[in-house]
C-alpha cells in the first residue's frame, strides 16, 4: 500500500471522527510515522509503507481519532522560531501567544540585558522565545506544576537557551525583582465556557492552565511589587475580557493600558507600565 493510498484512508478516518482538519493532520501524522518532512513526503507518495511504518502510523492515528491534540500525538509543536516538546502537562502553544511575544520584544528592545519574569511558563514557550529573540534577556519562568517545569527545562536544554525555571505558586507571591518585564498567559476560560470547547481542549489540556480562577488579578497585583519603575506588565487576554483587564490595570496604578489585537483582529494582549 503506497503512502498516497494510506494518506487518503487516514484523512477519511480522521474526518469520520470529527477531527477539524483531517487532511492536514493526516499528512503530519504520516510524516511522523515515516520520519519525513512535508517536502520529503511529497516526493515519496508512490512508495509503499513497510510493516513497522504501518504500525507506527496506526498508533498515531488511533490517538488522534480519540481527539487527542495533534501536538501531543506528535510530541512537539512550533512556536515562532522554535520547535517545543509538549505533552498533557502543558498547553499547546497557540498563534495568538506569538503576539504576546512580539509586544514583549518591542517593549524591551532598547534594554541591553532586560530582566524578565514569565508567570505560568508551561512549556516555556514565551520565556524561551524571548531568550531566543533577545539574546541579552535574563529570563526566569515560573510555574506551579512540576510536570510543566520538566517540559520547559527539557526544551531549554535541547534548544541551548539560558533560561532559568523555578516552581512557584501564585499564592506565594512573585519572586523578587526588580524586573523590566513581567509577562503572563493566565488561564482565562470560564467554567461555563469549558463544556462548549472542542474535546482537544476540554478533555486533554490541563484544566489548571485553562480555567480562570482570578489568576490574572493576582499577577496584576503582584507585579507591582517586583517591577522596576518604568517596567512593563504584558498579559494575554480572553477576547471578551481585554477591556476588563485594561481597567483593572488602571485601577491598580499602572499607566496608559493598551490592547493589541491578534491576527484574527480579536483583542488579545493587554499591557501597561508601572511608574511608581
Folded structure, characterized:
The chain is an alpha/beta fold. Helix content is 42%, strand content 20%. It contains twelve helices and nine strands. The termini are far apart. The mean pLDDT is 95. A hairpin with a 5-residue loop joins strand 8 and strand 9. The protein folds into two domains: 64 residues; 195 residues, Vaccinia Virus protein VP39 (Rossmann fold).
Q: What features would you highlight for this structure?
A:
276 residues; alpha/beta; Rossmann fold; seven-stranded mixed β-sheet; two-stranded antiparallel sheet; 12 helices; 9 strands; 42% helix
The main sheet comes to: 7 strands, mixed
Radius of gyration, in angstroms, nearest whole number: 20 Å
Mean pLDDT: 95
SSE run: HHHHHEEHEHEHEEHHHEHEE
What is the helix content?
40-55%
Number of individual domains: 2
| Main β-sheet, spatial strand arrangement | 5-4-3-6-7-9-8
Named CATH topology of the largest domain: Rossmann fold
Number of helical regions: 12
What's a concise summary of this model?
By secondary structure, the chain is of the alpha/beta class. The protein has two domains: 3-66; 80-274, Vaccinia Virus protein VP39 (Rossmann fold, 3-Layer(aba) Sandwich). It has twelve helices and nine strands.
How is the topology of this model organized?
Elements: H1 3-16, H2 22-34, H3 38-42, H4 51-65, H5 70-74, E1 76-79, E2 82-85, H6 95-108, E3 115-119, H7 125-133, E4 138-143, H8 146-159, E5 164-167, E6 179-184, H9 191-194, H10 199-202, H11 215-223, E7 227-236, H12 242-251, E8 255-261, E9 267-274
Parallel strand pairs: 3-4, 3-6, 4-5, 6-7
Antiparallel strand pairs: 1-2, 7-9, 8-9
Helix pairs in contact: 1-2, 2-4, 6-7
Amino acid at each position: 500500500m503506497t503512502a498516497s493510498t494510506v494518506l487518503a484512508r487516514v484523512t477519511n478516518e480522521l474526518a469520520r471522527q470529527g477531527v477539524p482538519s483531517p487532511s492536514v493532520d493526516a499528512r503530519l501524522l504520516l510524516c511522523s510515522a515515516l520520519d519525513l518532512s512535508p517536502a520529503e513526503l511529497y516526493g515519496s507518495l508512490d512508495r509503499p509503507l513497510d510493516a513497522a511504518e504501518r504500525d507506527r502510523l496506526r498508533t498515531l492515528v488511533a490517538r488522534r481519532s480519540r481527539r487527542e491534540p495533534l501536538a501531543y500525538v506528535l510530541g512537539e509543536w512550533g512556536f515562532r522560531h522554535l520547535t517545543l516538546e509538549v505533552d498533557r502537562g502543558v498547553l499547546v502553544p497557540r498563534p495568538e501567544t506569538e503576539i504576546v511575544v512580539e509586544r514583549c520584544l518591542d517593549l524591551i528592545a532598547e534594554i541591553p540585558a532586560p530582566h524578565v519574569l514569565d508567570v505560568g511558563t508551561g512549556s516555556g514557550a514565551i520565556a524561551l522565545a524571548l531568550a531566543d529573540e533577545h539574546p541579552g534577556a535574563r529570563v526566569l519562568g515560573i510555574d506551579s506544576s512540576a510536570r510543566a517545569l520538566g517540559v520547559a527545562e527539557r526544551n531549554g536544554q535541547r534548544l541551548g537557551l539560558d533560561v532559568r525555571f523555578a516552581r512557584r505558586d501564585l499564592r506565594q507571591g512573585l519572586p523578587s525583582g526588580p524586573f523590566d518585564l513581567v509577562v503572563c498567559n493566565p488561564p482565562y476560560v470560564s467554567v461555563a465556557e469549558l463544556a462548549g470547547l472542542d474535546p482537544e481542549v476540554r478533555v486533554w489540556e490541563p484544566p489548571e492552565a485553562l480555567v480562570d480562577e482570578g489568576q490574572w488579578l493576582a499577577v496584576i497585583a503582584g507585579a507591582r511589587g517586583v517591577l522596576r519603575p518604568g517596567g512593563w506588565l504584558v498579559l494575554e487576554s480572553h477576547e471578551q475580557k481585554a477591556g476588563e483587564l485594561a481597567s483593572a490595570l488602571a485601577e491598580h496604578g499602572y499607566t496608559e493600558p493598551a490592547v493589541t489585537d491578534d491576527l484574527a483582529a480579536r483583542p488579545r494582549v493587554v499591557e501597561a507600565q508601572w511608574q511608581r
